[in-house]
Design brief:
- The complex is a heterodimer of chains A (about 400) and B (about 500).
- With about 400 residues, chain A is mainly β.
- Chain A folds into 3 domains: about 140 residues, Immunoglobulins (Immunoglobulin-like), CATH 2.60.40.10; about 100 residues, Immunoglobulins (Immunoglobulin-like), CATH 2.60.40.10; about 110 residues, Immunoglobulin-like, CATH 2.60.40.10.
- In chain A, about 10% of the residues lie in helices and about 55% in strands.
- In chain A, the strands form 6 sheets. In chain A, strands 20, 21, 22, 24, 25 and 26 form a 6-stranded antiparallel β-sheet that branches. Chain A has a 5-stranded mixed β-sheet with strand order 2-9-8-4-6, with helices on one face.
- In chain A, a hairpin with a 5-residue loop joins strand 12 and strand 13.
- The N terminus of chain A is likely disordered.
- With about 500 residues, chain B is mainly beta.
- Chain B has 4 domains: about 140 residues, no CATH class; about 100 residues, Immunoglobulins (Immunoglobulin-like); about 90 residues, Immunoglobulins (Immunoglobulin-like, Sandwich), CATH 2.60.40; about 130 residues, Immunoglobulin-like (Sandwich).
- In chain B, strand 6 and strand 7 form a beta hairpin.
- The chains are: A mainly beta (about 400), B mainly beta (about 500).
- At the A-B interface, helix 1, strand 1, strand 3, strand 8 and strand 9 of A face helix 1, strand 24, strand 28, strand 29 and strand 37 of B.
Chain lengths: ~400, ~500
């Protein structure tokens, strides 16, 4: 305690003459399973996030501080040094009475440079903490677990992974993991179950639980329950499948007269299982690549997986009947989807169809003999024509 | 104009070839006619004592003054009297002579017929020739089999007929083509071709040779059906990346070999093994949760463009159903996963693909992401203007600006605050309303847990007090404002006042 007071006093004194801005530490926590008289060297990475010259003090605070030796209590950084590694040594006692986690802070505190000020000036300094968590195994059966969610893709099998860590003193032989996939309304959409798992004390295992998503794009929650004799642990992770997308499915125009205002009703369709707020469109009418008219719609909200009409108004007072190109850029979230249509303006109507749509005639199938006959007939016709041409050319020359 | 003419000539050529191919077997046409009237190939001359051509003596073409000649032509071929193909008859002398069949050896003057392209063969049959043969002349003698010391006549005159047939060599009419056109090492090579022969009755064979470069490796012969596609297969065990294989086909109809045709392919060489660059292997304190995976460019011996396939997994065996992420068809040499990585160990590897096959997988690298706490005080000083006793000021009105703190780490942070003394007076000690703080939203909005943070004015303490809970780490929303309020105590002496606030960050539980 005396040591801490002395360090605090030193730091506070230094703080009066220096200023500071940024600092980073990794890992910000270190887990150690207690072993009587256990020894461990632990490495920390101090990051000079702002690329400045500074000094930093390192000290331990907390219940286990007396078991910790900092190898280099002060480190110097120059502006070009992005990061530095420092070590501390942990020398555990023969016994720790308290079961579970005992936490101790390793504090890295920047010693800032002096700054001059006038009036009432408040400057700042920063410190970061890396926590040392020493775990004394619980008597009996005890598991700690973490849930990992892969970057699932619709229709492709991948896995959830659950990390199990037996932090009890007994073997666990009949542990199972169930995973429910919940929709936005917390309705269960899929349920998965692992095989039976066994774990020895202090053993850590990563358990895959396979899943092939056959759901709409959107946001979901995975709820994993680790079940072992007499206990269960619930883990939750939010995740998304696919990407949100709004497309213009069609454009219709009702009660149109050329020269008036055309109301273009764009039918939007969302693929996302959550509401999409404040979607709007920038619409351009183009004629042979040149933008002819440009307008912006109002904002609209679309229900999950829903459709919504978004109207745009086009003044056709200077528009001639004919074919134009419409480009609708729909903006939503941080995305934009551009759909193009060919629009056909007539005296009393406007029709639109997605660009690139091709009307294809079905080729009539002819059997091989028929085809051969046609080919030969064509060749004979060409030959006759050639001979006739040669003949008339010769006659002309003679004349 | 020139193009049109070329087109028309091409069309005519196609028609002529079609007509030729569809006409069936080539035949020899022979007629005994007056010597002077024959405008085709005169194979032998003949004349009897009365000036006719039956029961006649023969004369070799080297003389050529008899009244009658055996006048021959062949459709699609040109006949000569060379002895390259067949000896039709053997003569005792060059003129006024008897004849014998070619299987005898007593007469030394030969009457031959040959074809430029095809091949003629002759035999001797009683009464009638085979369907593919043409009767040239008939012959008879006083001997038992009429085959030597014989007179000659037209075909209907004697029973022993001299029969000659014209054989046309088979051709490789389609191919050969090797599939796949761009094979890989694991592919078998299939050489596809069609042999056709206008002589319908011939038994056809394909003599094939597989060459690796210039060295013949495998050869053989296989019977084929006229006009029907045939395949010859080379097993994948014979090939290696970079080999240049050749399939050569020579058609054979037991009379003649047709023209050899061949085709080459090169076995694809896969792109080189990729070398990984970043994240570094075995980095046990990696802090970027959205790293840009980097690797070096693969080379391709065939000059093909290359794409890349990356797999990221928490499992070393890269079981395809347990991957964290996987994507192929990457045209650049980097990849960033759309999903933030978690605090665990990841294995990763990359392979190149040249659109024909994959290169070898890179070595497997791994890195471990650990929680990283880092804060930056964006505006590190707050300066209040000169203040009079019993006045107060704060940053809540942005004049002066509040302190802002940014979470530069990769996890939510809790932040505590404490400070040194600001005032010198007895009233203005710490933990009084003369010096206060509170957490507040910045321009980035709700970046921290407002309900669990101290968002009302708090007296500044000398010991750390946790006041910002779960400050978010994602770049778009990782900023918090800290408002400061100062009130000048009534007993504060004049002068410059300074204090240093310490912000301490730790990972949120």
């Amino acid at each position: 305690m005396k040591t801490i007071k002395l360090i605090m006093a030193l730091v506070m004194m230094l703080c009066f003459s220096y200023s500071a801005v940024s600092l980073g530490i990794a890992p910000s926590s270190v887990d150690v399973i207690f072993e009587p008289n256990g020894q461990k060297d632990i490495k920390l990475k101090i990051v000079n996030t702002d690329n400045t010259d500074f000094q930093a003090m390192i000290y331990a605070e907390g219940e286990l501080a007396k078991y910790i030796t900092i190898n280099s209590p002060v480190v110097d950084f120059s502006a070009g040094e992005k990061e530095k590694s420092v070590d501390y040594h942990l020398n555990l006692p023969s016994d720790l009475e308290k079961q579970g986690i005992t936490s101790t802070d390793i504090v890295i505190r920047q010693i800032p440079k002096a700054k001059e000020g006038a009036g009432t000036t408040i400057s700042t300094s920063v410190a970061v903490i890396s926590k040392l968590k020493v775990m004394v195994p619980y008597s009996g059966k005890y598991i700690e677990a973490r849930l990992f969610v892969s970057n699932f893709k619709i229709g492709k099998e991948s896995s959830f992974s659950v990390e199990l860590n037996n932090l009890g003193t007994e073997d666990i032989t009949d542990c199972r993991i169930s995973i429910d996939i919940l929709g936005p309304a917390n309705n269960v959409l899929a349920s998965l179950m692992s095989d039976e798992i066994s774990l020895a004390p202090k053993q850590k295992k990563l358990i895959p639980v396979a899943w092939t998503p056959e759901l709409n794009p959107g946001a979901y929650t995975a709820v994993a329950t680790v079940i072992y004799p007499g206990k269960s642990i619930e883990l939750r992770e939010w995740f998304t499948l696919g990407e949100p997308e709004i497309v213009v499915q069609s454009i219709s125009v009702d009660k149109f007269k050329l020269g008036g205002i055309g109301k273009l009703d764009m039918l939007l369709k969302s693929n996302w299982n959550l509401p999409m707020k404040d979607a709007y469109a920038d619409v351009k009418i183009k004629d042979k690549g040149t933008t002819y008219a440009e307008f912006k719609t109002a904002n609209t909200n679309i229900e999950p997986l829903g459709k919504q009409i978004l109207s745009a108004f086009w003044d056709t007072s200077k528009v001639l009947a004919g074919k134009y190109n419409l480009e609708a850029a729909v903006h939503y979230l941080d995305k934009t989807t551009v759909t193009t249509f060919d629009i056909f303006v007539e005296i009393d109507k406007i029709s639109a169809m997605p660009s690139g749509q091709v009307i294809m005639a079905t080729e009539e199938k002819k059997n091989g003999i028929e085809k051969t006959v046609y080919i030969l007939a064509a060749l004979v016709a060409i030959l006759i024509a050639f001979n006739a041409w040669m003949y008339f050319k010769k006659i002309r020359k003679q004349n | 104009m020139r193009n049109k003419t070329a087109l028309l000539v091409g069309v005519i050529a196609v028609l002529v070839i079609s007509a030729y191919l569809s006409s069936g077997a080539s035949t020899i046409n022979c007629t005994i006619m007056e010597n002077r009237s024959c405008s085709n190939t005169k194979v032998i001359y003949m004349q009897n004592d009365s000036g006719g051509y039956n029961n006649a003596h023969a004369q070799n073409t080297s003389v050529g003054n008899y009244s009658y000649a055996l006048c021959c032509n062949a459709v699609g071929d040109t006949l000569t009297t060379s002895c390259d193909d067949a000896t039709m008859l053997q003569l005792n002398d060059t003129t006024n002579t008897h004849a014998q069949a070619s299987f005898h050896s007593t007469y030394t003057v030969k009457a031959c017929v040959s074809a430029n392209t095809g091949k003629i063969s002759c035999s001797y049959r009683n009464n009638t020739c085979a369907a593919t043969e043409t009767c040239m002349v008939s012959m008879a003698s006083s001997g038992a089999d009429n085959s030597t010391n014989a007179h000659i006549a037209n075909c209907s005159y004697y029973s022993l007929q001299v029969c000659c047939g014209l054989n046309t060599p088979p051709v490789v009419s389609v191919g050969p083509v090797i599939k796949p056109a761009r094979p890989v090492d694991a592919d078998e090579l299939v050489c596809n071709f069609t042999i056709t022969d206008v002589d319908d009755s011939d038994t056809l064979f394909a003599n094939y040779t597989w060459y690796n470069g210039t060295k013949a490796i495998i050869n053989g012969s296989t019977q084929v059906t006229n006009g029907t596609a045939t395949t010859i297969t080379l097993g994948s065990g014979n090939t290696s990346a970079g080999d240049r294989w050749n399939c050569s086909i020579t058609p054979y109809d037991q009379n003649q070999y047709g023209t050899e045709k061949s085709i080459n392919v090169t076995i694809n060489t896969p792109p080189s093994k990729v070398e990984l660059s970043y994240p570094l292997n075995n980095d046990s304190a990696f802090i970027n949760r959205t790293p840009m995976f980097n690797w070096t460019t693969a080379t391709d011996a065939n000059g093909d463009s290359v794409t890349y396939h990356i797999q990221i997994s928490q499992y070393f065996d890269f079981n395809t159903t347990q991957l964290f992420d996987e994507i192929s068809g990457i045209s650049s040499t980097n990849f960033t996963s759309a999903k933030e990585l978690d605090f665990t160990t990841y294995f990763w590897r990359v392979q190149a693909n040249d659109s024909y096959e994959n290169g070898s997988w890179s070595d497997v690298w791994n890195f471990t992401i650990v929680k990283y706490i880092a804060i930056t005080v964006v505006n590190e000083n707050v300066s209040f203007p000169e203040m009079a006793i019993n006045t107060e000021d704060d940053t809540a009105d942005n004049n002066p600006e509040p302190i802002t703190i940014q979470n530069d780490g990769n996890y939510e942070a809790n932040i505590s605050i404490n400070s040194s003394l600001l005032w010198q007076s007895g009233l203005g000690v710490l933990n009084t309303t003369y010096y206060q703080y509170k957490a507040n939203y910045s321009a980035e909005g709700s970046s921290f847990d407002y309900s669990k943070s101290l968002t009302a004015w708090q007296n500044m303490q000398s010991l750390p007090v946790s006041f910002i809970s779960a400050l978010n780490h994602t770049d778009s929303n990782d900023l918090v404002a800290v408002d400061i309020r100062v009130a000048v105590p009534a007993d504060e002496p004049p002068g410059v006042k300074q204090s240093t606030i310490l912000f301490t960050a730790e990972e949120a539980p």
